[in-house]
Amino acid sequence: MKNKIRFGLYGCNMYRTRDLMEAAAVAAGDVVRIAACYDIDQSKARFAAEKYGGRAFESEAEFLACPDVDVVLISLPPFLHADAFAKAAQAGKDVYLEKPVCVSQEGRAKILAAHKKHPVRCYVGLSYRYVTPYRKVAEILRRPEAGRILGVHHHWLTPERKTPIDPSQYGWRQRLEQSGGELLQHCCHVFDWLWWLGGAMDSVTATAYTPPGVPLPHEERELNAAFLYKKGGMAVFALSQNSHQYVQRGTVHAEGLGIQYQWGKDTFVRVYKDRARAAEETYEWSLGPELGDGGEIDRNSAQMKDFIDAWLAGGPMPVGIEDGIRAYDYTCAIRESYRSGHRVNLAGAGCDGFKFD
């Protein structure tokens, strides 16, 4: 078992890089070291090296060949993920890859081919398994008395963009082919969490609506996707990007209990058993900046600890390439369903060779 992990930062200008490095210091600061930094903007690499330590590289090839790097942490715009992963894998480096793992079928194929040829260990940054209220929901559902999941209903509400963006000023976040849109770039977390709760999905049926004249008309403004679990039960995901609020909330209906949850300004999990109008159990969090508040530091440090512990032990990654590919496949299936007007079969999602019927 190893006792140190040496990171190479592949991309130094994303807020997620900062969050993960702060979380790594909290989760396992005594075993983590930043050995190398690389960014196409060399000033960003130098800044990261000054802030976190390590050497700033001007050459991508020299960075990937650095013998002091155990794990390459890839935190780049999503359309660059597949190519960066393939290069890191070819260099024989283990990888921490931010989500989404890819934004196209070409990127999907590149990742799977690279992983097959160079089977490095790769952790994918799908983090909703570590969000405090969502972890509590999963913990409750794993109680013997919970029984089988019958239905999950998750609603993601975000406010409408008020100021139109001139298309000539679009950055990667506004370009569907570079970010994957809200449905892939961010909602992939939920699809992974729904899989984690109830297992593999059998199929999905989706509908979507985007009103005319809105900013970023390629985005799904209102969307509903109904998944059927292979072992029975349903998971319904709703996205509302015109909601005038920012919150995620939902319910879970199991044979032995019901759960109501919310993640936002008011964050809670409530468990209903024998009293339909009053919760028997209530859990609440402030989402403050300290450990135990249920906020971002709790999520990020739990995620990094899970990854670092698994890597040091030489074990399998808790969230791996197949999970990242599956979340991408589920997103593509949702879009295929609402565009075609048909249910889409999900058998084999996340695997090499998966195709829609």
Automatic annotation (TrEMBL):
GO terms for molecular function: nucleotide binding; oxidoreductase activity. SUPFAM superfamilies: Glyceraldehyde-3-phosphate dehydrogenase-like, C-terminal domain, NAD(P)-binding Rossmann-fold domains. Residues 134-254 form the GFO/IDH/MocA-like oxidoreductase domain. This is Oxidoreductase. Residues 5-125 form the Gfo/Idh/MocA-like oxidoreductase N-terminal domain. It comes from Ereboglobus luteus. Keywords: Oxidoreductase. The keyword Oxidoreductase applies. Gene3D superfamilies: Dihydrodipicolinate Reductase, domain 2, NAD(P)-binding Rossmann-like Domain.
